[in-house]
């Protein structure tokens, strides 16, 4: 049992190291996309920035395009870690917590990189951003559903969830159009409060 337990810990550590490498490659790629634009960045540029081999890059990503596909999955993984490390108990504050995390993620990557995400999802057949099974969607829906069930909010939980996500996606696009001239997280929370007030049970 001791040997088996040690093996499991080793595997877990390897998985953590692999994820850390993947996140490093991703972060460096996004940084380059923000500074030089997506079209001008090569896989070799990304590897040099991340200080990894080309082989390591292709171990984690199928192509440069795949970085953007994987970006939402990495965002969900990071959001889940942040959520599990502590979140508000109040349904309203829990929703604000998730949306703030989304906005801060966009702010951290910058306008140029955020634009690449939108371009990628508009042309992608997968549309991961709309996947109801992703952590971000599932968690937001669960909070809203519980708020409706407990009488805090009035309406259909799925509709409210989609209204929130559609509104925040629109705000990210507007923020990109304005070239990041305002604080996305502040405006996102302000508009979110208006939306939640609309659905608050009278």
UniProtKB/TrEMBL annotation:
The keyword Acetylation does not apply. This is TetR/AcrR family transcriptional regulator. Residues 42-61 bind DNA. InterPro entries: DNA-bd_HTH_TetR-type_CS, Homeodomain-like_sf, HTH-type_Tx_Regulator, HTH_TetR, Tet_transcr_reg_TetR-rel_C_sf. One of its GO terms (molecular function) is DNA binding. Pfam families: TetR_N. Residues 19-79 form the HTH tetR-type domain. Keywords: DNA-binding. It comes from Schaedlerella arabinosiphila.
């Amino acid at each position: 049992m001791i040997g088996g337990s040690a093996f499991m810990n080793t595997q877990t550590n390897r998985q953590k190291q692999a994820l850390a490498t993947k996140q490093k490659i991703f972060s460096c790629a996004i940084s380059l996309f923000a500074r030089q634009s997506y079209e001008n960045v090569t896989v070799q540029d990304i590897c040099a920035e991340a200080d990894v081999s080309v082989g390591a890059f292709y171990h984690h990503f199928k192509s440069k395009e795949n970085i953007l596909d994987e970006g939402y999955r990495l965002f969900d993984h990071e959001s889940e870690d942040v959520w599990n490390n502590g979140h508000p108990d109040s349904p309203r504050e829990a929703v604000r917590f998730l949306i703030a995390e989304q906005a801060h993620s966009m702010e951290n990557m910058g306008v140029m990189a955020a634009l690449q995400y939108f371009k990628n999802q508009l042309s992608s057949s997968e549309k991961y951003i709309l996947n109801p099974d992703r952590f971000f969607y599932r968690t937001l829906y669960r909070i809203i559903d519980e708020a409706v069930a407990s009488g805090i909010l009035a309406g259909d939980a799925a509709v409210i969830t989609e209204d929130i996500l559609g509104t925040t996606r629109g705000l990210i696009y507007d923020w990109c159009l304005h070239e990041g001239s305002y604080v996305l997280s502040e405006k996102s929370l302000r508009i979110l409060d208006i939306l939640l007030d609309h659905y608050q049970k009278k």
